Amino acid sequence: MPDSLHEKTAAELGECLAQGEASAVEIADAFVARATAVDEKVHAFLHRDDEDFLAQAKRSDERRANGQSRGALDGVPVALKDVISMKGQPLTAASRILENYVSPYDATAVVKLKEAGALVWGRLNLDEFAMGSSTENSAFGATHNPWDLSRVPGGSSGGSAAAVAARQAPLTLGSDTGGSIRQPASLCGVVGMKPTYGMVSRYGLAAFASSLDQIGPFSQTVEDTAILLGAISGHDPLDSTSYPTEVPDYRKGLTENQGPWKLGLPKEFFGEGIDDEVRRLVDEAIAFYQAEGHELVEVSLPQTELAVPVYYVIATAEASSNLARYDGIRYTHRSERAENAIDVYSKSRGEGFGEEVKRRCILGAYGLSSGYYDAYYLRAQKTRTLIRKDFEAAFEQVDAILTPTSPTAAFKQGERSDDPISMYLSDVFTISVNLAGIPGISVPCGFTKDGLPVGLQVIGQAFKESEMLAVAHAYDKTHQFGRRYPEL
User: Fold this and answer.
1) Residue 334, class by beta-carbon neighbours within 10 Å (0-12 exposed, 13-18 middle, 19+ buried)?
2) Contact assessment for residue 437 and residue 388, using Cβ atoms and an 8 Å cutoff
3) How many other CB atoms sit within 10 Å of the CB of residue 148?
4) What is the pTM of this model?
């Protein structure tokens, strides 16, 4: 087979397999070779089990030879952000505190991928416990943006985005708590989607902020995202927040939903703080929709300016609670300097957690503490309700909303490391979607004069992923910026 298998989309790989033009083993070999060749530069992977990967590929080929193919993903590789459990594989969350932890079970998303025949492979780098916007907070070294190795890939799912951009995997899964799929997708020039809260089971996902976290896909195209989303979605009794709703055929919906659509442009997302080139490219993408006959409507989301502070009160409060389980007693790092029970807790956590995780846990514990709960956490939750109501009012007027995904293209490594507030504002356009629990997707919409990717965000109504994907696909199928990749 040609050396170009690693360049193909998941849909193209599925077609190659169906037509007998490639075997699953050949596909697996191609991606192992690609990762071996380029990951030293990119550092998207924290761990790879190539032997298990090839064994899965052999089983896929055997099924296909016996006429038992499981569908579009059978024999197609999918790599995982290292917060998603896979039995027998490490789960570090890019933290020293879980450095030696091996997962004893599969996340529900992984169970579904295996049932679909996908080749589930590799552990991808991230900001520690998904806390960050640059993947510089990993305890095991930063991931580099494949388009410019001196720049960040975004975060926290930077490894997942970079792996697709560098063609080390056709599909990856990340998690999105405040933009951790969409922002790195924008900075790396790939498609990245956050589903509606409750659409994809969180069982087996290392928790950061439980009311905000969602697992979602990365890919080169919206079509591939639709395929992967269909495989991992659906109700799960193991997740109490999983919503019992029907999972439509998202791939079929791309062509069934043609519009014309009313598309909202929130005035609060197009003000100060957006890089001029980002604004130009997003405006050009919006102009495409107008030229195609879709109606553009200005809408208002008046609570937008409160989204970042509300997010950092709620997310850190939930993080401080969730991360209390990493105590040095059970399955985590345990300090050798501990002399008593208090030492076990304090020194194990002090050694095991990085600076950003400590910062957020302290902030969250403060917000939940006696005398401050009402002033911070309770008020933030009330404001969150207002943010959701803003979106509900907007969706009474429009079918979907268009915004920039990130206010800037990829920034230099280290550029914002000493300025947490500046780093937090990287997610200013994505956070409100998580607070409202609705779906959002970032689609590549061009490149700056320095050759850096920019993303257009499409925001949809709760549990109406099909319509949102169709809006995104209308642009993506015409422009296909996600099909471009750096040579490295």
Assistant:
1) middle
2) yes
3) 17
4) 0.97
Listed in sequence order, the DSSP H helices in 233-306 are 250-256, 276-291
Q: What is the DSSP letter of 127?
A: S
Q: How far apart are CA 5 and CA 13, in angstroms?
A: 8
3-state secondary structure at position 403: strand
List pLDDT tens digits, range 350-362: 999 999 999 999 9
pLDDT at 1 over 70: no
Residue 271: the pLDDT is 84
Tell me the C-alpha distance between 406 and 182, whole Å: 8
Residues recognised as catalytic: 81, 156, 180
**Sheet with 191-194, edge to edge strand ranges:** 45-47, 119-124, 77-81, 171-176, 214-219, 191-194, 440-447, 453-459, 400-404, 262-266, 295-299
Pick from 271, 265, 231: nearest CA to 248: 231
Torsion angle of C-alpha atoms 325, 328, 333, 339, degrees rounded to 10: 160
Q: What is the mean pLDDT of the chain?
A: 96
d(C-alpha 28, C-alpha 145), whole Å: 23
Report in angstroms the alpha-carbon separations of 485 from 2, 7, 188, 227, 444.
18, 9, 9, 21, 12
What values do phi and psi take at 127, rounded to 5? -65, 140
| pLDDT given for residue 3 in this prediction | 54
CA dihedral sign of residues 70, 482, 430, 470: negative
Structure tokens at 84: 């998603």
Render pLDDT for 12-41 as a digit per residue (tens, 0 to 9).
Answer: 999 999 999 999 999 999 999 999 999 999
Here the tokens at position 378 are 């309770």
Q: Provide the pLDDT confidence category of residue 371 given band limits of 50, 70 and 90.
A: confident
Asked whether the beta carbons of 154 and 427 are under 8 A apart, the reply is: no
Q: What share of the chain is helix, strand, coil (3-state, %, to 5)?
A: 45, 15, 40
Q: Is 288 exposed, middle or buried (0-12, 13-18, 19+ CB in 10 A)?
A: middle
**Within 10 A of 239 (CB to CB), how many other CB atoms are there?**
17
Rg (CA), the chain: 21
Pairing assessment for the beta strands 119-124 and 77-81 based on DSSP bridges: parallel
- CA nearest to 17, candidates 82, 63, 52, 50: 63
> What structural domains and CATH numbers belong to the chain?
3-263+403-483 (3.90.1300.10), 305-381 (no CATH)
Cα–Cα distance for residue pair 113/228, rounded to 1 Å: 9
Retrieve residue 98's tokens. 């879980």
